[in-house]
């Protein structure tokens, strides 16, 4: 763990590094758990928080924003399940697009239904700028309630994506550190 602290301190300063270490690495000892938490910390700081801030900025500028999270990880991929791009692409673009390439994605009926629903939403959005249609569950825009669609085998609508992390990075960690991370 000294390795992580060694690299956090120059980036964030002593006080902020201690807070970040406490938030993400307290009582974490297994090497894969350390790796998972390191990925989560980096993703929160460099991807998630800027995405939420961008959605808020666009919304406040009177743009219509649709925000989502894919919570489901395919049954065949358990290692590095939080690596968003790798594990989520089949659900965004569909699995088994080329019938000559046999994959296990979609072999479960729920997964096939999930990526078909997601693809319908993307097609609607591409055609009309709105992912909604009468045959799909409602996807609210990201307004003051900050609602977003949660894609999983059961699809739902939630509010304030990762609010506890948003609060941590925007309230606990000094603003000058988060500005450096975003730039």
What does it look like?
This protein has 183 residues and is mainly alpha-helical. The chain has two domains: 1-67 and 161-182, no CATH class; 89-160, no CATH class. The protein is built from seven helices and three strands; from the N terminus they run H-H-H-E-H-H-E-E-H-H. It has a three-stranded mixed sheet with strand order 1-2-3. Helix 1 (2-12) packs across helix 2 (14-25) and helix 4 packs across helix 5 (109-128). The longest helix is centred in the first third of the chain and has 30 residues, at 31-60. It is globular. The two termini are 27 Å apart. Mean pLDDT is 78; it is low at 97-106. Residues 17-169 form the Carboxylesterase type B domain. Belongs to the type-B carboxylesterase/lipase family.
Question: What's the short story on this structure?
Answer:
By secondary structure, the protein is mainly alpha-helical. Helix content is 55%, strand content 7%. It has 7 helices and 3 strands, in the order H-H-H-E-H-H-E-E-H-H.
Number of helices: 7
Note the quaternary state here.
single chain
The general outline is globular
Q: How many distinct domains? A: 2
Tally of DSSP β-strands: 3
SSE ordering: HHHEHHEEHH
Structural category is mainly alpha
Share of helical residues: 55-70%
**Beta-strand percentage?**
5-15%
Q: Output the radius of gyration.
A: 19 Å
Chain-averaged pLDDT: 78
**Order of the strands making up the biggest sheet:** 1-2-3
Could you list the spans in which at least 5 consecutive residues all have pLDDT below 50? 97-106
Give the termini distance in whole angstroms.
27 Å
